[in-house]
């Protein structure tokens, strides 16, 4: 009995020593982890402060009266195009940025979910919008008249004039609007300046992951059909839900939205497809630095420059450059 009692006491004492050593070792590891977490927490806070400052500086570039953008789009009529379900924050943010750049935001068109079921929608709407992108004819300059021709020959006019493509475009857009397949917002403009009566329009087509399952299937054919009829008049803006300044929600490698294509993949057919030389694109257009790219890309379109800009993988450069002129 004494032997077994001594053996038991020895085992207990040994186990107690081992337990103390194990607890001490684990406590040291916990202390190391807590120190590491505090250090990483401080780094994250400093990074967020730096990102917030960077975001605020970038946002200032597209703010009202910014020298970087004010006047960049003076007298350029712009219409926003979007599928139903596009983040409202993205729409309002881009509208504000374009307005600050002196663009004439004359309206928006929202494509409803039932639109892809209409067989002729792609052809009809791409043709109508392309017709309204054409610049209006310049008025005759009386100073250029030939003074030696005091009695010029009268201009012959046909009895049955050809239909005005712009008039047909307006009728097409109004027809689809009346059927509830698109929603046209004139953006508070007076009737004579509101879309779709305005000519020479430039378009910003907004794409967002997860807006509508059908949108990804018909938007690319629509953009390609548009590009066949009008060159250097549309920017496709890939957007996500705007994040707060200093926020870390967006991953520029590809934002995952359940059941949808990540943003870089969503824009890939635009960058490499049939319309790549006719239609420009801006990736992550709601990011502070990329908002500036939307303005400069629209400005480049007025000079006939087409390219694919913004942030993240797959873009040419963040902004249009002099080398692309």
Descriptive overview:
- With 325 residues, the chain is of the alpha/beta class.
- Helices cover 43% and strands 11% of the residues.
- It has helices at residues 2-61, 88-100, 121-133, 165-178, 215-229, 263-272, 288-301, and strands at 77-83, 104-111, 182-185, 202-207, 234-238, 280-283, 308-310.
- It has a seven-stranded mixed β-sheet, sandwiched between helices.
Name some characteristics of this structure.
alpha/beta, 11% strand, 325 residues, seven-stranded mixed beta sheet
Q: Short summary of the structure?
A:
The protein is of the alpha/beta class and 325 residues long. It is 43% helix and 11% strand.
Q: The biggest beta sheet, please?
A: 7 strands, mixed
Q: In angstroms, what is the radius of gyration? A: 30 Å
Distance between the termini: 99 Å
Number of strands: 7
What order do the helices and strands follow? Answer: HEHEHHEEHEHEHE
> Judging from the principal axes of the Cα atoms, what is the shape?
elongated
Count of helices? Answer: 7
Uncertain regions: pLDDT < 50 for 5+ in a row?
138-163, 250-260
**Order of strands across the widest beta sheet?**
3-2-1-4-5-6-7
Mean pLDDT: 79
User: What fraction strand?
Assistant: 5-15%
| Proportion of residues in helical segments | 40-55%
Q: Quaternary status of these chains?
A: single chain
Classification by helices and strands: alpha/beta
